[in-house]
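Whether sequence alone determines local backbone shape is best considered at the level of individual chains. In the encoding step, the backbone of a single protein was reduced to a row of integers, each denoting a local shape. For completeness, the protein is quoted in full, as a sequence line and a line of structure tokens.
***
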Amino acid sequence: MRKALSAGFFDHPTVSVAKGLLGKFLVVRWSSPQVRQGRDRIEAFMITEVEAYDGFHDKASHAARGKTKRNAPMFSPSGHWYVYFTYGMHWMLNIVTGKKGYPAAVLIRALAPCHVSPVACRHLQGPARLTKKLKIDGKFDDLPANRKTGLWIEDRGMKISPKRIKKSPRIGVHYAGKYWAGRHYRFFIG
């Protein structure tokens, strides 16, 4: 079973969507001038780690200080990509959740399994590594997650037992203060 997730999947509370993404597959289609049309390369990777960022009140969220040009995609309808550039060198891939106008998104932090070498697998652990390896950049920012745009998420029937879903504080958000930095909004398969 391979079913692309519709915007309706993402139109729920951010933390619920984050947990629900574990075991789903990020699918990327690469077009190449050397490849005949209709024969683009498609690869899929299971989502194994995510972080939730939930609205204006979440001090770790880019939306905590209101809407800006950079974070405007967070206010888009659910199921849109929020792809931003950070530290002058890394792209971060997020999927927008919840109702339009409410800024919430889930950061994709790690992908697996790899059908290639263990060394290549390490390139898909960490949000900057996976975007670099998969050639995901700002061209996807504020586009819907669907086959037409070349970047989408599928349900392939993988069921993750609730016992295998682990949680912890998010990584690198100490600036958000003790309460928000300590929220267990990072979810991963353990």
Notes: The helical segments are 7-10, 14-21, 118-122, 127-134, 177-182. The chain has a mean pLDDT of 92. The radius of gyration is 16 Å. The beta strands are 3-4, 25-30, 41-54, 81-86, 90-96, 104-112, 151-155, 165-168, 186-189.
